[in-house]
Every structure is written in structure tokens, then in C-alpha cells.
Amino acid sequence: MLDPQTAADRAQSAIARARAHGADAADAILVADTALSVSVRLGQLEDVGRSEGAELGLRVFVGQRSASVSTSDLSETGLAALAERVVAMARAAPEDRWAGLAPAERLLHGAPPLLDLDDGGEVPPQVLREAALAVEDAARSVAGVSNSEGGSAGYNRAIVALATSHGFAQGYAVTSHGISASVLAGEGAAMQRDHAHHSARHRTMLESPETVGRRAGERAVARLNPVKIDGGAMPVVFDPRVGGSLIGHVLGAISGPSIARGTSFLREHLGHAILPEGLSIIDDPHRPHGLRARPFDGEGLAVSPMALVERGVLQTWLLDSASARQLGLEPTGHASRGLSGPPGVTTGNVHLAGGSGSVAALIEDVERGVLLTELIGQGVNGVTGDYSRGASGFLIEKGEITRPVSGITIAGNLRPMLLSMRAAGDLEHRQGVNVPTIRVDGMTVAGG
Prior knowledge:
Radius of gyration: 24 Å
Family: Belongs to the peptidase U62 family.
Domain Metalloprotease TldD/E N-terminal: 26-90
Largest sheet: 6 strands, antiparallel
Structural class: alpha+beta
Strand content: 35-45%
Distance between the termini: 52 Å
Pfam family, one: PmbA_TldD_1st
Domain Metalloprotease TldD/E central: 121-224
Number of helices: 9
Protein name: Modulator protein
């Protein structure tokens, strides 16, 4: 596999060739990765998959016209043909007055931050096989588990390099390790399914297969014999495994392209309260080992921790350079870059801050409500904020989590939902978007 410096040099070479063919400006991203995964079912090996590859994406500008292409042929001949082809494409493209590279003065200069994203190690297939078997065995050993959809373990190591024609060229390495199990409990039509997984940048930070597997089995068994409930308005409590989706809707609504198009339910709320005063949404791309940590954004800009929402008040949009130009603002270091097409926007490691107290305290005054552990469907309107999802979880009765429920529907509107949000103090950093247990009062629940 390429190392970060060699990858950055290869990206610069592609840019130089594009400039030689008449491009006024260009940028290139190169991603090289190796991945290995092992899956088992009912104690038997099902699949071993390995992939290796490298691909380069080249974007060029001829005046206000641009085009993007990608290739897996990184030879000198291949890069030369790629550069000639993409410049010809750009000359035939329509003009876009917002297109262009990021401001040169905003580029990351000097050494990137040390985020410890790469443990450098390759995991042998036998080690992954043993982990996959162990996680499934632990799940199947839970009393009440009747069948398995399998266990899996895998790792990935990638080199990411970005270069631009106006002075940026850097790369970094990142590893990812994961383990998961999915099992069923009960028999026949009464069967219930659930799963558990864990991911980490370093293998030494992964939870044990026994812990992950036991969690999967216990979750499946806890869902047995769901009850039907009467619908109505009631408090809805979001378990951390699904509550991050609420923050995800906020991130989508404050993305620069959505704001520039006028297709966001938060388009008029910059500088206004969208959460209760005690809650904040923090974006930290510099969190060591973070699953979304990165030393620079998809246009080469420096990134830094920031409050997207501070004490309830929306502070910023998520802006790449194009959407920033459309809005007459500065880019915020949130550009994401794929191998083809223009940049989009993304965040680093995001969490909801400000929660306090125990989950028990959060629900102690709930006479009747639901705790959600699974959300189904995509019934969210990003323009109006109207929200409707299928869900499963547990009934809350007189402040206690009691019987499982399934096949229910929850509905509301994200604006009042966000403003009424309350959060416990059980935040853990396990995913790209992390939240504590969240309570939203007054939602409409239709019984299953």
C-alpha cells in the first residue's frame, strides 16, 4: 500500500498533468485501502473477504467550468490520459460561478494535528475468525436465543491524500476495526431479532467479543412477547443507539447546500434557539481515535473543534467553499470529498453536551410513555421538519421501563421536538454522532 507522502505526491502529479493540459486550477484526492472481513453463522465459517485497491479522483477548473473523473489506473500513462480527458470535459461543461478551490489563505499549513488514527497493524484472518466465532457464541449462549444471523469481525486500513494546485498536499493513514453479532430469540412468528456491534480506530480499544455478543443476545431476548399499546400523546425516550438520528437531522438542516437552496426547516434560525438552553451540539474533528476525526477537510482547510449549537442557540452553518460563496460567508472547514463530483459537507465527531442525571431520573415522572431502541423508515421532511417513523422499544409505566413494544409509529415536528428535548448524563463516545438518552415530550404515538 502507498504511504501518505507517496499518495500526496501521486495526487500532485495528476494535478501537474491537468495544468499542463490547460486547467486553470485543480485538486485531487487519492484513497488507497486494504480491508479484511470474516463472517460465521452457527459456528461455521461463512465468508472471508479481502479487498485492496487505490483510486484517484481529479477535479479541474477551466475558468468557471469544472469536471471531475476518477480512476484506479495510477500509472503515469493512466494519469496522463485522465488529465487530458477531464480537461476536455471541463471545457464543455456549463459555467458555475460558485465553483472553485477553497481560499488559499485558509489552507492547513504546517504539520497536521496528531490524532492517533492508525494502529498500523494488519490483523490475520485467523484472529478475525476467532473473534467472529466468539462474538456469535456469546450471543447464542444467552438463554432464550434460538437462532443466529451470524457474527463478524473485520478491519480496514486506508491512506487518504489530498492535493490542490494552490499549495496544499498532505495525507494521513487511518485504521478501523469492528465486531458484530445478530441473533434471534423465540420461535416461529413470535421471533424477535436484535444485534450489537462495536467499532474502534485501534484494535486494542475494541470491546471483547464476549461483551458485544452478550449484549446482542440480551437485546433480542428482551424484545420477546411485545404488547400492543393505545396511541396518544406521550413522552418518547430515545435510547443513545437511536437518539443520534435526531442530531443527524439537525446536521442535515444546517448544511450549506440546504441553506443555499432554501430547503431546510432551520433556514431562518441562525442565531436563534433551536434546543433548550442547557444543551449544545459540539463538533470535534480533533478527538483522538475518533471515528470521524480528521486533520483537514475535503478541500484542505484546517479544522477545529466548534460549537454548532451553544447553550441552545444555533451558531453556524456547515459550509464548503461553494455554498459559502453562495451565502456570502466563509467556509467553515466542513467540506467532504468523494472520488468524483464536487465536495459536499460533513462533520467530525459530534456529540450532544449538557445532559445530566441518571436515566431513571429522566423517566421517573413518566406515567405512560415509550423508550425507543429501534427506528424504522425515513419519514422525515427536511423542508418542513415533519417527522414520522416506525419504532420498537419498551413501554414506560409509572416511571419504570416495563414491557417490550413493536410496530408503533411516532410522529411530531422537529422544531418543537428539539426545543422540548431533555437529556440524561449517560453520554458515551462510541459512534460518529453520540448522544445521551434523550426525552421528548408530547409526541404522537400510534399503537402497534
